[in-house]
Amino acid sequence: MSDKPVVLIVDDEPSILRTIGDNLSADYKVIALRGRADTDEYFEEDNLKPDLILLDILMGPEQKEEGYILCQWLKSNEETRDIPVIFLTQKTEPEEEAKGFEFGAVDYITKPINPLIIKARVKTHIQLRERTKEIIETQKDIILTLSEALEKRSHETSRHAKRVRLAADLLAQKAGLSDKEREDLWNASPMHDIGKIGIIDRILNKKGSLGRIQFKKMKQHTTIGYEILKESKREILQIAAIVALQHHEAWDGSGYPQGKSGENIDILGRITCLADVFDAITHKRCYRGEKVFTMDEVVDMIRRDRGKKFDPRLTDLFLDNIEDFKKILEENPD
């Protein structure tokens, strides 16, 4: 992995590649590619992911608008959509700039290349990208901190959030979720019970079964968690809000708080639901005393709720890989 930010240049003019490379190589890892074919090959292989792409609009012997097509492909690809793209162009008309922004570019640099301008623009966008990464990491830190705060308050959830995260991620992998969806779930799933912060101690930690009114209050942790998180403009916390709201919904519509059913429940909520229940029934809980279910009992309970509480396909994947989920419990005891 490069210690320097990686700048990828795509242009069919060798002189442009050399000029930009000479001006940026002291501060960045510069990778120069000539045209669409080289770029496709680059991203098909396990190469360094660029922090910034400088992309010529007109390329090839016929000077077609290959840059627009390539930018559109980059922005539609899950692995590359977040990479900022700056167009290199001799086109300066406002409508051309607007067209480029519609395709997803963040800036324009006009030819002929001015070394001072390209250095300044590249520096600005690299810094913006780094700040964005810092914001995302801060969100992740907030999620973990809040989850840990909840675990300290509850007498029964030591390492619960961590095990749910691991089980949810494993199930998401088995279900074929994309890398982006798995990352979203990894970041959001520890927050599934964050609404319990709003549940009073005598209900949250009551020994024995909850009464009807008490259980009604406990169920409010889903909507409390959603209300805490929903106003955030940050994607991670918006996703966490959905998981907090939906992780007690049931496939057959018998869950809460909204009574959603089937695929109307977000896939991340469905996965977290199964991971959460699995962890809950394999550990002591104050509301059922000292009762701990055997693994055979756990498997039977989950199988019985296939198509009722749980998504049938996810249930089958879970049970087919039960040894892998048991390993998560073994490696992360309370």
How many H/I helical runs? 15
Question: Which geometry do the CA atoms define?
Answer: elongated
Report the strand count: 5
Within the CATH hierarchy, at the fold level, what is the topology of the largest domain? Answer: Hypothetical protein af1432
From the helix content, strand content and strand pairing, which structural class follows? Answer: alpha/beta
Highlighted features:
single chain; 334 residues; alpha/beta; Rossmann fold; Hypothetical protein af1432; 2 domains; five-stranded parallel beta sheet; 15 helices; elongated
Description:
The protein is α/β, with parallel strands linked by helices. It folds into two domains: 6-130, Rossmann fold (3-Layer(aba) Sandwich), CATH 3.40.50; 154-331, Orthogonal Bundle (Hypothetical protein af1432). It contains 15 helices and five strands. α6 (160-174) packs antiparallel against α15 (322-331), α7 crosses α11 and α10 (221-229) packs antiparallel against α11. It is elongated, with a radius of gyration of 25 Å. It starts with 5 loop residues before the first strand and ends with a helix.
